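Lab meeting prep.
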Amino acid sequence: MSVHKEIKRITTHTLQEFKDGGIKIAMLTAYDFSMARIIDSAGIDVILVGDSASNVMAGHETTLPITLDQMIYHASSVVRGVSRALVVVDLPFGSYQGNSRLALESAIRIMKESGAHAVKMEGGAEIKESVERILTAGIPVMGHLGLTPQSIYKFGTYTVRAKEEEEANKLIRDAKLLEQSGCFAIVLEKIPAHLATAVSEELHIPTIGIGAGGGTDGQVLVAHDMLGINKEFKPRFLRRYLNLFDEVQGAVKQYVEDIKARDFPNKEEQY
């Protein structure tokens, strides 16, 4: 806990110091001011404004529908609730793929309009040019390899990636390429633990795992999954720290009952 008191503001440099010093990095998602304020005050290192907002906030089946404008709205809400954590924002599907100039414009809009500290992009060799172009504007980039949800229709499934040797070798090559291109960290999603450990040991920059075992330099989960707001999502890598769905539902049921029974408001609760 002493680490949290010493650091007023987490930066990309802090994360590198954590890796070099063997301190694990804690990362969670947030999409709104209230949740961001709670998570930040609890001592989280990195807050990801994920395109998973498409699923958990908007109810879409995939991350693809969320727009750049919507990501900026979520990110600016989060930034207003944060005083310590590094805020990283996903570049949404269609805002950077195959066009490095568009990628730069998208990243600049996120930084300028939301006040966030970095952007995250999915992919390896295919986004090298975009990563380098964004970095020329002084915008820090976090990479994302393994299961890349924006490519769900290419994969056709959310199963574990890089189990075959060929895909594992490409992942290692891509990780090194992202590091050479200037990424400050890389998310490794849903890949075999031994591969994630090997990549983490080979790279100088930090790795953040989700469903990638304990050998990465940090961990990330979607807050709504970790807090049990989503009941349906039960992957092996998820540890539920609360069951908020039932807690909140119970409270609302009680509220409804109290109103119907004329118990709320009582004499003390009125003017």
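Slide two material, second protein:
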Amino acid sequence: MADLVQARGVVKSFTTGGVVTPVLRGTDLAVAEGELLMLVGPSGCGKTTLLSVIAGTLDLEGGEVTVLGTRLDTLAPAARTRFRCRNLGFVFQAFNLIPALTVVENIAIPALLNGLRPAEAQAKARVLAERVGLGHRSDHLPTQLSGGQQQRVAIARALVHDPALVVCDEPTSTLDHHTGDDIMALLREVAVRPGRALVVVTHDSRIFPYADRIARMDDGIITGVETPPRTP
């Protein structure tokens, strides 16, 4: 299958107090259509930075990033924002749900941003709430949900506008083993299919068997890529 993501020679550093810290040092990574790729490595090695560059939320200083055939590093900021809105779904470690909105209203946000009418967006959000096992909680607020339930809302929100690329930052780090398994099984079911791909940054070795490939990272570069034994 074709690569949906190609990062070549990516360079990125951060400057704090006049001190420049290199983070990505000519990093290469490819993610194939229909693939769940996990990005693993020690804290501070550049995993989340690489994920952010691939998602177009951080500028790079060298190299290039192509997502769905589009060179993100050549797009103006407004065009990159529109590209992300249409084509990417995000699952954050901290959930980032809006406290004043219900489950359905939170899920519907990306659909509204992509031009769906409110009634259509909420109807689609209710379908996804059912699919993630939260149909009975559709009109609850985030504070009325468990951590695992909030993560399911975040996943449904990431998928409501049918993005081609879903990126996840530590989606199971705050979850127990059983809930983490449920989350990863759900992600594989709904996000890994033809025309889509999923990239997961994680320290959680319990979920490695859900990956098609694992890219190991250290000191700002990919040091190796492996295929783990798959979960039955």
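Talking points for slide two:
The chain has a mean pLDDT of 91.
The first strand starts at residue 3 and ends at 16.
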